[in-house]
Specification:
The complex is a heterodimer of chains A (111) and B (116). Chain A is built from no helices and eleven strands. Chain A is an all-beta fold. In chain A, the strands form two sheets. In chain A, strands 2, 4, 5, 9, 10 and 11 form a six-stranded mixed β-sheet that branches. In chain A, strands 1-3-8-7-6 form a five-stranded antiparallel β-sheet, with no helix packed on it. The radius of gyration of chain A is 13 Å and the shape is globular. The model of chain A has no long low-confidence stretch (mean pLDDT 94). Chain B has 116 residues and is mainly beta. Chain B contains no helices and eleven strands. In chain B, strands 2, 4, 5, 6, 9, 10 and 11 form a seven-stranded mixed β-sheet that branches. A four-stranded antiparallel β-sheet of chain B has the order 1-3-8-7, with no helix packed on it. The model of chain B has no long low-confidence stretch (mean pLDDT 90). The chains are: A mainly beta (111), B mainly beta (116). At the A-B interface, strand 4, strand 5, strand 9 and strand 10 of A face strand 9 and strand 10 of B.
Chain lengths: 111, 116
């Protein structure tokens, strides 16, 4: 049962432009949402999070938006840099319990 | 060490053999998670520990898979009678899981398991 879905397996963006990665979820009990970034041969690293009481959280070039009614969240990266090229995973949990991940989106930022 | 440590980093085994994968979480982290990532796939949840108990084992794919955690620290994931479809990267993560704040997971670099 895929409770967290990332429907775009890949995304290619020009350096300097905005990257928008999308994620949908089915469990309305989820109240904590995160984005992780993963490079080859390394474990995922935490990027940014948002709790269900907010609809936006910003950290430098990274902004996460949450639309609870649509059960949708997105990650905006602006401006995109070649070093942002990685696989991005969306994750969600209920009350900080077991965390479920999406299938990932491979972002390629072209110089 | 400062981060989550997993061993071995790579393991090649013959079909039918048993394997044990080890995870050393960050000191003081009470929650521990196992995930696996098969080639070209996302992160598949396997099991979650809070302390030494496992409230959620729902992700274990079959009864050939088991996991334990002792002393609220080190965890081992055991796969018996390995099959080729078990080939994947097995990732361990830990979290402080404080009751009043939300905490992201901290991942190790994984164990790449290849079953020949």
């Amino acid at each position: 049962d895929q409770q967290v879905k990332q429907n775009s397996p890949s995304l290619s963006v020009q350096e300097g432009r905005i990257s928008i990665l999308n994620c949908d979820y089915t469990n309305s009990m989820f109240d904590y949402f995160l984005w992780y970034k993963k490079y080859p041969a390394e474990g995922p690293t935490f990027l940014i999070s948002i709790s269900s009481i907010k609809d936006k959280n910003e950290d430098g070039r990274f902004t996460v938006f949450l639309n609870k009614s649509a059960k949708h969240l997105s990650l905006h990266i602006v401006p995109s840099q070649p070093g942002d090229s990685a696989v991005y995973f969306c994750a969600a949990s209920v009350a900080n319990n077991d965390m479920r991940f999406g299938a990932g989106t491979r972002l390629t930022v072209k110089p | 060490g400062a981060g989550v440590s997993q061993s071995p980093s790579n393991k090649v085994t013959e079909k039918g053999k048993d394997v044990e994968l080890r995870c050393d979480p960050i000191s003081g982290h009470t929650a521990l998670y196992w995930y696996r990532q098969s080639l070209g796939q996302g992160l598949e949840f396997l099991i979650y520990f809070q302390g030494n108990s496992a409230p959620d084992k729902s992700g274990l794919p079959s009864d050939r898979f088991s996991a334990e955690r002792t002393g609220g620290s080190v965890s081992t994931l055991t796969i018996q009678r390995t099959q080729q479809e078990d080939s994947a990267v097995y990732l361990c993560a830990s979290s402080p899981r404080r009751a009043t704040t939300y905490s992201p997971l901290h991942f190790g670099n994984g164990t790449r398991l290849t079953v020949t």
